[in-house]
Design a protein that fits this description.
This protein has about 425 residues and is of the alpha/beta class. The protein is about 35% helix and about 15% strand. It folds into two domains: about 65-75 and about 335-435, Aspartate Aminotransferase, domain 1 (Alpha-Beta Complex), CATH 3.90.1150.10; about 80-335, Type I PLP-dependent aspartate aminotransferase-like (Major domain) (Aspartate Aminotransferase, domain 2, 3-Layer(aba) Sandwich), CATH 3.40.640. The protein has helices at about 10-20, 45-60, 80-85, 90, 105-120, 135-150, 160-175, 185-190, 210-220, 325-360, 385-395, 425-435; strands at about 65, 125, 150-155, 175-180, 195-200, 225-230, 250-255, 270, 285-290, 295-305, 365, 375-380, 395, 400, 410-415. Helix 3 packs antiparallel against helix 10 (about 325-360), helix 6 crosses helix 7 and helix 10 (about 325-360) packs across helix 12 (about 425-435). The longest helix has about 40 residues, at about 325-360.
């Protein structure tokens, strides 16, 4: 967004109008010991020189030819229509609709987004305004507390480590106990004091969990405990059973339709069963009609944030609407349609499994997954440093070193393959793996 600085005359006029003499007076409430005295900044530049300087800086960025990195942020094909629509000023400049009913266009886009997500997840209700999957999962955990009045959450191993940390932070603030357990201990750990069980599928290591079987275990032990499923890459819903068919109470996920840029921006998807609708954070847009007439209009049906209702009744303090990211997700899903999303999912599944099989044939490489996987899988490497260095030399963004999150897994990588990885990319990666032993 362009920035046009004010001249000195304009600054003085504004200061006079608000009743202060100088800019420093605006910060008079900040103690002097907290103020930075010297920022050691260079002199200002004319606009032409500044633009030239920024252009030169941008040339230092390295754009890889292809990527085998996933772990929560994925390279997918984004139809050109997505960027075209979200660049329109009515979407690009919109923010949270505080005077909601005036913003009928923004409300309609939220409504259509909610409808699209509910359709692909087959859940009853989807809200708007979640930041990302990590915070959406944390909000789901606190929802379980509000619904059941129980103060313990079980997290099944395999959830993204960053999601786990976010859940712990939210739960700490509400004095909710959290415990991370392996899946095979779920049956023994379930009691009437558990508010919810959190599981990611496909999990951080790409493995697809049997959600229906997990739901049966939970229902046999507790009638109140909620099953909450997280998902990093919802493109798999074009191939896997949606959460609405597997007894999931709350479903959360990262959004789709946005280009990775240092891991974002993104948005969080949160969908629930009807009976939990009034415990949702964020916003819910509904479609209504005139009392006397046939004209339709969009309204903010539910707002559970503390700014709109009594603080002690608020379920969440989530604020920003994530409107632009939401529109991107909506246009992405509409552009692909049901058959397009299925094609994306199938290519992710097949290409990843093709590379998995190829690597398993190379001496020294071991596939560590024991369950079916979707677009990601874990490999033990004979020489991980050489593999990653060779990838970069060949202009390939290398897979994730698992030691980044798990220090004891020094020789393991998490490889991601999507529809954007061509046959030639996969062949090149296999060749690099053969040489990096």
């Amino acid at each position: 967004m362009d920035y046009v600085p004010h001249d000195e005359e304009t600054i003085q006029t504004m200061l006079k109008n608000i009743g202060v003499e100088k800019l420093d007076d605006l910060y008079s409430d900040i103690p002097n010991n907290l103020k930075i005295k010297n920022l050691n900044l260079p002199e200002g530049l004319p606009e032409s020189d500044l633009l030239k300087n920024l252009t030169n800086l941008s040339k230092k960025n390295h754009i890889y030819q292809t990527s085998f990195l996933g772990a929560g942020s994925y390279y997918h094909y984004i139809p050109s229509l997505v960027d075209f629509v979200i660049s329109q000023s009515q979407f690009f400049t919109s923010y949270t609709p505080y005077q909601a009913e005036i913003s009928q266009g923004m409300l309609q886009s939220i409504y259509e987004y909610q409808s699209a997500i509910s359709r692909i997840t087959e859940m009853d209700v989807t809200n708007a305004s979640m930041y990302d999957c990590a915070s959406a999962l944390a909000e789901a955990a606190t929802m379980a507390f509000f619904i059941t009045k129980k103060r313990k959450i079980l997290l099944i191993e395999g959830i993204h480590p960053e999601y786990i940390e976010t859940v712990k932070t939210y739960c700490w603030g509400r004095s909710i106990e959290t415990e991370i357990i392996p899946l095979n201990e779920l049956n023994n750990k379930l009691t009437d004091e558990i508010a919810g069980v959190l599981i990611q599928s496909p999990n951080f290591f790409g493995e697809i969990e049997d959600i229906s079987q997990i739901a049966e275990i939970i229902r046999s032990k507790s009638k109140k405990c909620l099953l909450i499923q997280a998902m990093s890459d919802p493109t798999c819903l074009g191939y896997l059973n949606p959460p609405g068919k597997t007894e999931v109470d709350i479903f959360v996920s990262e959004g789709v339709g946005m280009h990775p840029s240092f891991g974002g921006p993104n948005l969080g998807i949160l969908s629930v069963k009807n009976k939990y609708m009034r415990k949702m954070p964020g916003r819910l847009v509904g479609l209504t009609k005139e009392l006397q007439g046939e004209k339709e209009g969009y309204v903010l049906t539910i707002q559970a944030r503390e700014q709109h209702i009594r603080r002690e009744k608020a379920l969440s303090n989530i604020c920003s609407n994530q409107g632009l990211a939401m529109v991107a997700s909506l246009v992405y899903l509409v552009s692909l349609g049901k058959t397009g999303l299925k094609e994306v999912a199938m290519q992710n599944f097949q290409k990843a499994n093709h590379l998995k099989q190829a690597l398993s044939q190379i001496s020294g490489y071991e596939i560590l997954n024991t369950k079916p996987t979707y677009n990601e899988f874990v490999v033990k490497c004979p020489n991980i440093n050489k593999l990653i260095k060779s990838c970069k030399e060949e202009n390939i963004l290398p897979p994730l070193r698992l030691s980044h999150y798990f220090p004891d897994r020094e020789d393991e990588i998490l490889i991601c393959v999507t529809e954007l990885n061509s046959k030639e990319d996969i062949i090149k990666f296999v060749h690099i793996a053969q040489e990096a032993k």
